[in-house]
Amino acid sequence: MILRTTLFIGLLLCFLNANAQLNVLDYEIAKWRGNKQAAVSVTFDDCIPSQFKNAIPVLNDESRKIPATFFLTGKSISKNVSSLKQAHLANHELANHSFTHPIKLAELSPSEIEAELKQCQDAIYGLFNRKLSYTMAYPNGSGQGKEPKDLVLREILKRYAIGARATQIKPSRINEYFWDSPFTNDSYYRVNSAMISEGFAASDFVSDLNEAISNRGWYCATYHGIEGGWIITSKALFTLHMDELIKKKDQLWIATFKDVIAYHKERNSAKLSVLKETKRELKVSLTDTLSDDEAFNIPLTIRIKTPGMNIKSVTQNGQKLRYKKHLDTLEFDAVPDRGDINIRKRSKRQ
After folding, report:
1. Which residues, 6 or more positions from 110, have their beta carbon under 8 angstroms from its beta carbon?
2. What b-and-e string marks burial along 163-194, b requiring 16 or more CB atoms within 10 Å of the CB?
3. DSSP H helices in 131-234
4. At residue 104, what are phi and psi to the nearest 5 degrees?
């Protein structure tokens, strides 16, 4: 009887230990997509025609293919419909910069602020009759501060955007990975950027990129007119900046403002859990705590320790995912809350 009891307890402990091991997964979610060292967003303010005439051809060139974010004043949208539609189809982001560009947005009444944001959002919506705008840039940087009026503005803005950009709000032009202390959801509405014009040499641009890489941070470049308009950068200098950016593409994730915000929020609210493991399959679940799956739809770069495991395929919700295996680490991109992830193992005979 004692022998049977001891054997039962031993088997039970083995079972519990096996299940405990099943729920422990050695993984990390890369800080930036593709496990790049830093993120970069190229942004434009004010919907200036020279941006479409001179900047977009540089961005769209086959040697670059740089996605950018265009923060639009609502009153300018009707004058640039064709250019904006082409920009959207080329994978550039169209986003909110208020309707009339008030110099001090934060000093308007709450109802006036709401009208500025909603009218611009509605104008962008009307381009394709669906939601396109998920982020915002403050006119003249008005709203990124910490005074009561700024807090009121940001509380209203959170109904329209997942993040917002200011310009030169601190000595460094880059955002460290967690750019506020303490870092809260409000930090996503206080993103810093570099204001760029003709005096911003290519060497300055490269220095900022290197600083972003060193800090594993995020660099936002803010342009206005390209060869025309106001706060002008020549097309030649802008082209130099973009070429310097491409030279470092192996180290940098170059993405729209919205995509970087979404990735950062997803990554820092996501977890990977084991659902099932057999000799042939490892099934895991990638979830986050964010409710808006339309806005938060950016694939996260997952890196799992898989010592001794030969991989046959990786799928999510039945769709094949590209993957890389380096030594004992499996890397792939998957979207949170888009279905279970199945990692099929290859038998030794295969």
Report:
1. 152, 156
2. bbbbbebeeebbbbbebeeeeeeebbbbbbbb
3. 148-157, 202-214
4. -130, 80
What's phi and psi for 282, nearest 5 deg? -120, 115
d(C-alpha 203, C-alpha 308), whole Å: 46
Looking at residue 55, its pLDDT comes to 98
pLDDT of 348: 61
Q: Return the SS3 of 304.
A: strand
Residue (of 165, 223, 161) closest to 192 by Cα position? 165
Q: Distance between CA atoms of 140 and 46, rounded to whole angstroms?
A: 11
pLDDT at 8: 42
pTM over 0.90: yes
Region of 216 please: left (phi>0), alpha (psi -120 to 50) or beta.
left
Sheet holding 281-288, edge to edge: 270-277, 281-288, 341-345, 311-316, 319-320
- Give the angle subtended at the CA of 247 by the CAs of 242 and 248, to the nearest 5°: 100
The CA radius of gyration of the chain, in Å to the nearest whole number, is 24
| pLDDT of 290 | 97
CB 54 within 8 A of CB 229: no
**Distance from chain centroid for Cα 293:** 14
Residue 157 burial (CB count, 10 A)? 22
- pLDDT, tens digit, for every residue of 11-39? 444 444 444 444 579 999 999 999 999 99
125-170 pLDDT, tens digit each: 999 999 999 999 999 988 899 999 999 999 999 999 999 999 988 8
φ, ψ at 326 (rounded to 5°): -125, 115
Other residues' Cβ atoms within 10 Å of the Cβ of residue 52: 20
In the chain, which stretches have pLDDT less than 50?
A: 1-22, 350
Question: Which residue matches tokens 């499996």?
Answer: 330
